[in-house]
Amino acid sequence: MHFRRKDLLGIQELSPEEIEFLLNTASSFKEINLRAIKKVPTLRGKTVIHIFYEPSTRTRMSFDIAAKRLSADTYSITTAASSMVKGETFLDTVKNLEAMKPDVFVIRHSASGAPQRIAARTAAAVINAGDGMHEHPSQALLDMLTIRDHKGRLEGLTVAILGDIAHSRVARSNIWGLTKMGARVIGCGPPTLIPMDLEKMGVTVRHRVDEVIPEADVLMVLRLQHERMSQGLLPSLREYARCYGINDERLRKAKKDVLVMHPGPINRGVEISPDVADGPYSVILEQVANGVAVRMAILYLLGQGERQETASGASI
Ligand code: CP
Question: I need a surface site. Which of 37, 109, 279, 285 has the fewest CB within 10 A?
Fold first, then answer.
């Protein structure tokens, strides 16, 4: 099939076939990351600019590593080091960077819709690396790839997304992706952290984590997004950990082959205990490893300036 999009802005707009194609292409890139020389010439001569106006460890580094492994030239700009501190608008910043003729912008922004706004105004490919509470498409793709690696499928699985769903772009992208791919999604958390429209997205809403755990093939644990939260949504962190934290005792009720996932960063002892985060069911670092392959696939499919027919047989 052909992947004909200029941009990757969200999972909501993708078809199941496009998601499958992205996952298959990412699978074919995994092997490069295991080579002694982890570099292929695919994007030689292409320019990728990372614009991160919010903190990031995993997404920023893995997009940068992915671009460099494809031989693209990469540049990075952050809020503190940009002329935004002198009053320049985000759009003016991007227009000035566009004058330098990049091929791809990778954008993280605290405002939902910021990458979409830029995509409509630039000829370069735009990749959403997380916008406000809206979407984080590359995270959902790497999560789906990790589940598929372990379970061999997505269809028919029960994935429980646990915790602060209201403020989570990771949850939103995963809900779009997993439901499109035929998984059953349960959203579980305190009522104050569950968005009103969740059931309309095809999600079963529950509030008691101990009742959800035995049903799930995958437990996707979310961080409390304090930076996006208004006051008064939780009595205390201690109370949250007691009622919703995933710990060894709770996990005893889980299926024997359950996967424990977390997009990171982790707040150990709050939403997940250290013994679970580092334990035998955890695939958290596999998610990070798959993030590089997924981002290589996205950059490969969007960064060539011409839409390629590829999945596993790509000339990489
Ligand atoms: N999962 C994720 O987006 O992590 P970072 O904020 O470190 O990029």
Answer: 37
- For residue 255, the domain's CATH number is 3.40.50.1370
Q: What is the pTM of this model?
A: 0.94
Q: How far apart are the first and last CA of the chain?
A: 17
Q: Is residue 1 part of a domain?
A: no
- Percentage above 90 pLDDT, the chain: 87
- Please report where in the chains the tokens 């919010």 appear, as a residue: 54
Is the residue at 316 inside a domain?
Answer: no
79 in the same domain as 114 = yes
pLDDT of residue 250: 97
In this structure, is residue 308 part of a structural domain?
A: no
Nearest atom of ligand 1 to the alpha carbon of 55: 6
141 and 283 housed in the same domain: yes
Q: Are residues 130 and 160 in the same domain?
A: no
In-domain check, residue 57: yes
Is the peptide bond preceding residue 265 cis, with omega within 30 degrees of 0? yes
User: Which residues constitute the domain of residue 208?
Assistant: 137-287
- Counting ligand 1 atoms within 8 A of each CB, the residue from 57, 223, 261 with the most, and so the one to mutate, is 57
The rounded Å distance from CA 58 to ligand 1 centre is 5
Encode pLDDT of 15-36 as tens digits.
Answer: 999 999 999 999 999 999 999 9
Q: pLDDT tens digit string along 37-70?
A: 999 999 999 999 999 999 999 999 999 999 999 9
Q: Which residues pair with 106 in a beta bridge?
A: 50, 127
Alpha-carbon distance of 296 to 289, in angstroms, equals 12
Rg of the chain over all Cα atoms, to the nearest angstrom: 19
Which tens digit of pLDDT belongs to each residue from 252-262?
999 999 999 99
Let me know whether 221 and 171 are in one domain. yes
Task: Give me the percent of the chain exceeding a pLDDT of 70.
Answer: 95
Residues 131 and 170 in one domain: no
- List, in sequence order, every beta strand (DSSP E) within the chain: 47-52, 73-78, 104-109, 125-131, 158-162, 184-188, 203-206, 218-221, 259-261
Return the bridge partners of 101, or none.
Answer: none
**What's the number of domains the chain is made of?**
2
